[in-house]
Amino acid sequence: SPWRTKCEHECSKGCAIYKSRPSECEEFACAWLMGHLPRKDRPDLSGVIMTSEDTAFGETLMLHETRANAHRRGRGAALVELVARESGTQPAILKMHDGTSRMLNRATLTAAMGVLQKAGEE
Q1: Of the candidates 24, 7, 26, the residue with the CA atom closest to the CA atom of residue 16
Q2: For a designed S-S bond to 46, which of 32, 50, 76, 114 qualifies (C-beta 3.0 to 4.6 A apart)?
Q3: What is the per-residue pLDDT for 108?
Q4: 3-state class of 86 per DSSP?
Q5: Average pLDDT, whole number, for the chain?
Q6: Which residues lie across from 15 on neighbouring strands?
Q7: pLDDT level of residue 117 (50, 70, 90 thresholds)
Q8: CA angle, 16 then 99 then 112, to 5°
Q9: Rounded CA gap, 87 and 60, in Å?
């Protein structure tokens, strides 16, 4: 699948081709796989995958919803709330299942405004 698009192999239980998945998927490591989150925040349980990506705002915490409205229930909501509260000056963005995004902290909003202002000046 193209970068940042829903995978055609995503199914209700995760990956329909898990045993024969491509190397990009096999090598992918989210925050949970890297040991940064407790077992209860495992993506298939929380409905949220957390990664760190280099964006226009610098190193950014990205939370990707794997199920619609996971950020509003249970561990998904708790994880989003934790990142919004504790990410400090590191930008944090929630990419919702429907394709929309939401900035989770003031640092991200401030950085976005700076990028937009700079683009308007060019």
Answers
A1: 7
A2: 76
A3: 66
A4: helix
A5: 85
A6: 10
A7: confident
A8: 135
A9: 10
User: Which residue is associated with the tokens 């950020």?
Assistant: 71
Burial class, 91, CB count within 10 angstroms (exposed 0-12 / middle 13-18 / buried 19+): buried
pLDDT of 5 above 80: no
For residue 73, report the phi and psi dihedrals to the nearest 5 degrees: -135, 145
| Distance between start and end Cα atoms, the chain | 33
Average pLDDT estimate for 37-65: 90
The label of the residue with tokens 């199920």 reads 67
Beta-bridged to residue 84, according to DSSP, are none
- pLDDT of 3 strictly over 70: no
| pLDDT for residue 113 is more than 80 | no
Give the integer Cα–Cα distance in Å for 89 and 106: 8
Nearest to 43 by CA among 20, 73, 63, 16: 63
* Contact in structure between 85 and 57 (CB atoms under 8 Å): no
Coil vs helix vs strand at 54? strand
Q: Rounded to the nearest 5 degrees, what angle is found at the Cα of 104, between the Cα atoms of 50 and 9?
A: 35
Q: Are 65 and 71 in contact (CB under 8 A)?
A: yes
